[in-house]
Amino acid sequence: NIKTIRKKCRNLSRKKEGSHNRNRARKDLARAYRKMDNQRKDFHFKTARKLCEEYAVICLETLNMKGMARRWGRKVHSLGFYSFVEILKYEAKKLGTQIIFVDKYFPSSQLCSVCGYKNVAVKDLKIREWECPNCHTHHDRDKNAAKNILMAGTSANGGEPVRRSSERKVC
Q: What does pTM read for this prediction?
């Protein structure tokens, strides 16, 4: 899809200012952008609906989008993380799914999900896997962070574990 947009942008730049063909190319480019946006929205709605139907509780980490954009560029904004979270909130409200946000300063990837040891050496984002020096459990950074966010989110819910509905799980 990006290739199509690049091609249409090149096509537009070759047209003479004020010409009928340039206007046609401009509309063609706008149509391609609209199609890409609609595809993304459709994917977000379908994914949010599926998550809310499957899970009774969803725990998310509040992310610093501006900081992520500084590090990884504007592609972070074009992926639409914020809009996905808004759609997820909307779907969750409709289906009765509880969404819990964990503070962005919570050290989710530094804590061992088994024993709770805080490994400060894991702050470096290049470290994708690590072993806990306390309990010697091998951790994948993202899976460990997901477990810690779930535990922090459910414990923040009044300090008691979240009860699961009959067929829906806790995410």
A: 0.76
Which tokens hold the place of 108?
């989710």
Token output for 148: 């810690």
Report how far residue 109's alpha carbon sits from residue 78's, in angstroms, rounded to the nearest whole number.
Answer: 25
- Closest-CA residue to 128 (of 118, 139, 120, 136): 139
Q: What is the pLDDT of residues 82-121, one digit of tens each?
A: 889 999 999 999 999 999 988 888 888 888 888 888 888 8
- Alpha-carbon span 166 to 22, nearest angstrom: 58
Question: Are the C-beta atoms of residues 52 and 170 closer than 8 Å to each other?
Answer: no
Polymer length in residues for the chain: 171
Maximum pairwise Cα distance, the chain: 70
